[in-house]
Design brief:
alpha+beta, 35% helix, elongated, disordered C terminus, Ubiquitin-like (UB roll), 3-stranded mixed beta sheet, single chain
Length: 352
């Protein structure tokens, strides 16, 4: 009986293995045949109109108003050179990678969140866009006296001229050392086609005066550390809604000779000056103390912002601060951190 059981077991096991092996072999043969057929038909299938992706087949989610109507066409021009010679096809296995390069390279794009190819021919694109935070206006009509580092004087005869252009009083446009340009929070110069076609849109962002450098051409980092710093300052104030709630529409920046960092003055629509002093979200330090120093520097900026809002609440608005209380508008003279009074110079020394 055991011999019979062993015989039956080996017989059926071997038969099953032979059947499975035959099925596997048949599958491989069919797969090879299918691959051969696909190779011969691939070109004809891919060339069908329904798989060709045209510019109108792109759906870009929620583009901001300042992004050009030609945004997709501009992005497609930024594909790798070898990819630009080929038609877009939804069956192309490299389509998503090529589009990723294209959209990431566009000056309005912060990052690509997703690219999804739908069949037969549609591409859904979700992006994180760069956002304007300030307008850099390299106008020569700003006079700054930094002879006294405690109470510098920021005088400007800037006014909002015709058609959204800035100029000297008495002139519609005024003398200029360079055309204004829009930057994001990182000091990245953004495309300005929308703003040039709609000059009033410049008024939606604070004007930064006092910077003399102008980008040579194109878009991207401006190459001036002061532009980066001023943009970060404008972004900080925007996060606090300081421009909208406090009626601030100008940021004037000055830099002492031999120094890299600037000192700042805020101007309200009514012409009131608020001396902010230096701005830094992180101290210039390295090593283990960096995080502590960065936190201290940021806390100082937060303290100044709180004081600014307290002044606006105390006097109804910054424009209503009486002349005898003008010293309170100098935020660099004395700030309050916790229960202690400290000067900005003391805070800078502590951050070293």
């Amino acid at each position: 009986m055991p011999q019979l059981l062993n015989f039956l077991r080996y017989f059926f096991l071997g038969r099953a293995q032979r059947i499975i092996g035959a099925q596997a072999l048949t599958g491989l043969l069919l797969l090879g045949f299918g691959a051969s057929v696909w190779t011969s038909l691939r070109t004809d299938v891919c060339d069908q109109e329904i798989y060709r992706v045209k510019e109108s087949d792109f759906y870009v989610w929620n583009p901001p108003i300042w992004v050009s109507d030609r945004f997709v066409a501009e992005a497609l021009e930024l594909r790798a050179p070898e990819a630009r010679t080929e038609e877009l096809n939804s069956l192309d296995p490299n389509l998503v990678d090529n589009l990723l390069i294209a959209f990431e390279s566009h000056p309005w794009v912060e990052r690509v969140e997703s690219i999804e190819v739908r069949f037969p021919a549609r591409v859904d694109v979700k992006l994180k866009y760069k956002e304007p935070v300030a307008v850099i206006d390299p106008t020569p009509s700003v006079a700054i006296d930094l002879s006294d580092s405690t109470t510098p004087v920021f005088n400007d005869d800037w006014q909002d001229g015709q058609n959204g252009q800035n100029g000297r009083k008495g002139n519609a446009v005024g003398a200029r050392s360079g055309e204004k340009y829009v930057v994001d929070a990182n000091g990245y110069r953004l495309p300005d086609e929308y703003f040039r076609n709609n000059p009033s849109a410049y008024r939606d962002f604070p004007i930064v005066l006092g910077i003399r450098s102008t980008p040579v051409s194109g878009f991207g980092q401006c190459g001036d550390p002061l532009v980066v710093e001023a943009a970060a300052f404008a972004s900080f104030l925007a996060e606090k809604n300081a421009f909208e709630k406090l009626g601030i529409n100008r940021v004037i920046v000055a830099k002492k000779k031999g120094e890299t960092k600037g000192v700042y003055c805020l101007k309200t629509v009514g012409g009131v000056s608020v001396f902010w002093g230096r701005f830094a979200t992180a101290a210039e330090a390295e090593g283990p103390a960096f995080e502590r120093n960065a936190a201290d520097a940021l806390a100082l900026q937060e303290t100044k912002a709180r004081k600014l809002f307290q002044l606006a609440e105390k006097y109804s608005s910054l424009d209503d601060v009486p002349p005898e209380a003008a010293a309170e508008l100098n935020l660099a003279v004395e700030t309050v951190a916790g229960d202690e009074a400290t000067t900005e110079n003391d805070a800078e020394e502590n951050a070293k």
